[in-house]
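[SOLVED] Predicted holo structure with pyridoxal-5'-phosphate

Edit: marking solved, answer below. Original request kept for reference. I posted the sequence and ligand SMILES and asked for the 3D complex as C-alpha cells.
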Amino acid sequence: MKLDTRAVHTGDRKRTGTWVPVTTPIHTATSYFYDETSDLDQALGGTLASPSYSRYGNPTNDALEELLASLEGGAGALACSSGMAALNLALMAALVDRRRVVLAASALYGATISMLTKVLEPSGIEVIFVDFADLEATAAAIAKNRPGVLLMETISNPLLRVAPLDRIAAMANEAGAQLVVDSTFSTPVITRPLEFGANFVVHSLTKYLSGHGDVLGGVVVADEANLAPLRALAKSLGPLLGPFEAYLVMRGVKTFPLRMERQCANACRIAGWLANHPAVAHVNFPADPKHPDAENIKRTFAPGLYGAMVSFEIGGAEREDIFRFMNALEMIVPATSLGDVQTMILYPLISSHRDLSPKHRARLGIHDNLVRISLGIEAVEDIIADLDNALKVFAAS
Ligand SMILES: Cc1ncc(COP(=O)(O)O)c(C=O)c1O
C-alpha cells in the first residue's frame, strides 16, 4: 500500500475479541495479567508478543510504533516522550559496543548541539563536528577519528541546508559506523533515510507527524540489526511516550500526508513571494534552483516536495526590528515550534539557537536578522497578507 494509505490504516483496528474498534483505544493500564501464569512468564520473557508491563510495551504505543516503522520502512520503532528523548535514546543505542566517538554535522538543532556538548561530552563521549556538505572534510574526519556514530539532520535548522544523505550513509557503512538521522523537518513523505542506508531515524513527533500543537513526543525507528538493542535500552531507561499522547499522534498521522502536501505547496509560494519583497535580503528554501545543495535535494527528496520551512533575512534588521516585525503579525503565530496546522514564526536568536554563543551562531551562518517560518495549511493568500502587512514596519522606519 502507498504511504498515504498506510498513514490511515497501519497499526489500527486490532481485533481484541469478536469486535474490532475502528481506532486504537488508549490503554492506560500499567500492567497486564493472564489466566495462565505461564503466559505472563512468556510475555515477560518476550516469547509471547503480548503486554506485561507498560514500560516494556503498551498496545496503544505498539500500534503507533507499527505505523511509524511502516512509514519509514524500518524494522520497528520506539515512541518516546519527546524528540530529545528519542535522539538521546538513538545515540545511546547506536553507541552500544562501538567506539564512543560521535561525528556530528555542524548544522544541527540548537538543543541537539547542547546535548552533544553539555551532556554527552562530559560523560566521556568524544564529539566532533564537521560540515557534512563537505564530503572531503567528512571523509578525512572519519579516517582520523574512526567514529562509532554519525549524526545528521535531513534538512538543517534553521538554514535549511540538505546534506548528501546517500553519500554520508555510504561512508558510514564503509567505516562500520552507525548513522543516526533526525528527519523531523523532511518527514517520510519527502525522504526515508533507512532506504539510503541509515541505521536509525529520529523524529520529533511534536511537529509534522502529530501536527496540531497539542502533543510532545518523539520516535526512534531502527533497522533490523539495531531493534533488539534499542528495545533493551528503552526497557532500562524508560523514556517512553504515554498512551494518551500515542493516541493523539496516531490520530494526527492519519492526515499527515495530506497536511504535508499543502504545507509544502504553501512554503513554495511564500519562498517565491519573499524573494521578491524589497525588505527581504535573502531567502533559504530547498526548491531554489540556486540552493547550495540542489544536487543533494534532487537525489534524496521526493519530486516536487521541498519541505514546509522557509527562513529569511530582513535587510539591515536588528533584534529590536525583528521584535517589531513579529509583534505586527496578526495571524501567524510567533511561538516556538514547527510543523503545526497553523503557520508559525520563530526567531532563532531567542529560541532554537539561543543557547549558542553569538560567535558560534555567526560561524554557522545564523545571523541576527534571520527568522524562520513553518508554513501551515491556511489559504496562502492570508499568509501573504499577514507577512506583507507586518513587513511594512520596515518601510516606515
Ligand atoms: C530538528 C529537531 N529535532 C529535535 C527536536 C526536539 O523535539 P522535541 O521538542 O519534541 O523534544 C526539535 C525541536 O524543535 C527539532 O527542531
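OP edit: The longest helix spans residues 243-275. Thanks to everyone who chimed in.
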